[in-house]
Amino acid sequence: MNSRFLFLLLFISLKILYSQEDTTEVVFYGGKRIFYYPDEELVILLDSSFVRYSIYEVKACSIVYDLKNQILQAYKKNKEVIFSAQEDTIIGEELHFNVKNKKGMMKKAKTKIGDGFFYADEIWLIREKVLHAINCNYTTCEYNPSHYHFFAQKVKILVDDMAVVEPISLHFFTLKPPFVAAPFWFFPIGEKRKSGLLPFRAGRSKEEGFYFKRVAYYLVINDHSDLTFYLDLMQKKGIMPRIEGIYDYSPKAKGEFRGAFISESQTKKRRYSFNLLHNSKFLFKTELSAKIDYQSDAKFIQEYAEDKIEWLKSEIYSVVNIKRTYKNFGQANLYLENKKDFINNINQFVLPNFSFSLISRPLIRNFVNFSPFFKFENYYAIFQDTIKNYEQGLSGNLGLFFMPPLVRNLHFGNFSYKKRKEIMEEKW
After folding, report:
1. H/E/C letters for each residue in 229-267?
2. Residue 125 CB: number of other CB atoms within 10 A?
3. Pairwise pLDDT comparison (261 vs 406), residue with the higher score
4. Minimal CB count within 10 Å: which of 18, 116, 348, 417?
5. Are 298 and 342 in contact (CB under 8 A)?
6. What is the mean pLDDT of residues 330-353?
7. In whole angstroms, what is the distance from residue 401 CA to residue 359 CA?
8. Residue 247, Cα to own-chain centre: how many angstroms?
9. What is the dihedral of CA 295, 296, 298, 302, to 10 degrees?
């Protein structure tokens, strides 16, 4: 009895021992030439050397790995030092990293944040996904040297979250005096939606002079909607506020909108644009879809749009459609449209089109089906600002369809009525 108890106890102990996971993380390292000094517990890796530990990887020309203190040092020679942590990569000239507590520092470091490029004299890894940087430059310009950059003495980077900068100043080319400065700045840099200031662009052009574009604040309202407020500051044009919004309450409603306005300082003209895309469903199976596209003049998009595809637009088109379905009865549809052709100076309106149809019902069982439909149209067009065309019409079908095979394609009951009027206005 005792031997059986001891055997069972031993079996349980061995099972627990071997079922425990080994949490020790192995350090892998290599290079074309490896030197090991056992007394100092020191490994020196030369030529295409690397060290991998947990989520971290270091590549350099030479790496010194202190096994006793778990510290590695990497140096630049022919190639720069590359420090990677999953999808994040920092490139520099010299790295000091403690493998045990996962803290470190890199000199003359550079990395990419969002759509821009980040440089710093020193970047310190304080803890996982938290970086401190000293004497930093940031720019979205791809040229080297860059046309402009932002400088900050201190930056705290919360990877995949937020960057906090203090103070910050803007410099053009290699000029040391700042063009503009601010005591602090912060902006989100992660993929997760988070409110905050966004990076902006600066530059100079012949038409706009010195400019700051996309100075923005991103506001997360809730899990389904957000807003972005923009300011474009242009020396020769003035200040143009813009707004963008997105909402998604599927399946009830979904859409996006954007608008811009400027009162130009040179021409004194007030110019604007507004765009909306919307789809929604509400009471009694009513569906609303809308596409609104308005702008003050033909050249607004060409002069201010950042997307070059938008420059090619020669007309704008807006439409609103409201459709309501009556279960086992029929469907009603209200349609409004506005189309403006800037090249030919034609403005067309459909205000409104209304149609109604009933589902097919037997009028005489197995002989005649009844499916009526009618449509009202109200069309209005302005040509060259002088010719105005009006057209109203009513059309439909009584929807009498014969069912027997010999007369199946026979139907009648079509009707239509149209009224036209044209007015020409002379302008002096």
Report:
1. EEEEEECCCEEEEEEEEEEEECCCEEEEEEEEEEECCCC
2. 25
3. 261
4. 18
5. yes
6. 87
7. 13
8. 13
9. -70
Is residue 426 left, alpha or beta, with left meaning phi > 0 and alpha meaning psi from -120 to 50?
A: beta
Look up residue 414 and give its amino acid.
N
- Tokens 């409004």 belong to which residue? 336
Of these ranges, 41-50, 120-129, 251-260, the one predicted with the greatest mean pLDDT is 251-260
Q: Residue type for 172, please?
A: F
Amino acid at 12: I
Residue 290 has what pLDDT? 93
Q: Which residue has the tokens 């420090």?
A: 83
CA dist 157 and 375 (Å) reads: 62
Report field, pTM of the whole predicted structure over 0.90: no
Q: Measuring CA to CA, which residue among 148, 146, 180, 181 is closest to residue 166? A: 181
Tokens of 269: 């003209």
Considering just the CA atoms, what is the radius of gyration of the chain in Å?
35
Q: Which two tokens stand for residue 154?
A: 């201190």
**325, β-bridge pairs:** 331
Cβ 109 vs Cβ 91: under 8 Å: yes
